[in-house]
Amino acid sequence: MKIILMLISILSMNSVTTGQTGIFYPFGSDAGDVNNIGIEDENSTYVGLLSPFVFFGRMYNQIYINSNGHLTFNHPSPVFVPDSLPSNGSEDVIAALWTDIDISQNGNISYQEYTTGSVLTQATQDINQYFPDLSFTATCVFVATWDKVAYYYHSGTETSFQVVLISDGNLSFIMMNYGDIAVTANIVQAGYDTINSTNYFLIPESNNGSSISNLKYSSNVNVPGRWVLRVDGKADQNIETVIGLQMRVISYSDLAEIQNVAYVMEKIKQELVHQGLPSSVELNLRRVEKMKP
Hints:
Elements lengths: L1 E6 L36 E12 L2 E9 L3 E3 L20 E6 L9 E7 L3 H13 L9 E12 L2 E14 L4 E7 L10 E5 L6 E3 L23 E5 L10 E3 L8 H4 L2 H17 L7 E6 L6
Parallel strand pairs: 1-13, 1-14
Antiparallel strand pairs: 2-3, 3-4, 4-5, 5-10, 6-7, 7-8, 8-9, 9-12, 10-11
């Protein structure tokens, strides 16, 4: 899909500036999770799903929770140095925070799948709030949480994040929640990738370990620390669409700076993907000047 954006006036972008800590779905012993699944370094835990999860047209009945912060579907992944997204690889990957993690000193990795109860109610409310054009009722929610885990070579650091898979058997979403994230010199990635990178998404600046702590303040749903993406892949990826998008910028010369264009285009693409378009969408920018009579 190609989308042509016609710049006809001025750009105003608001960034999230305040953090929030109480956004995690229930986790840990009190929630009834299966705990301490990644004590060994480079560990992968197989989970047979009670309800299948559709990920860009492929239906999966199992998932692997890999200790280094990512989920895979077909095979375990001991990889601790993530490939840059898009990787054009042979595996579907959900990278909540893919980096070299070692919980032998501190931290806990846990998971639970829900098919009834209040967590489904919460997920249903969240998805309908973030995607108001859908009439969605969650039938299955899978939650995996990395709580106060340490990076390898950085024993004593504490990083907390969570990935939530939400489905009604037809539509699928992933929610990534971020608490306190320690900076690291390790290579990091957060987002998702598909086989041959037909679809992929990288949370902006999540591939920079020195600024990774900002994940706690970033969002595409106006909830600091939370990213929610639709991943069933049912949107038509073969339609060419022309959209006239009104934006406000101080001047076109300011926008024309390479780094500004990249930032603006990435923000627009995120919003389009959030609204259900495929992450393979291509954006082109045109300048349209209004002629005086």
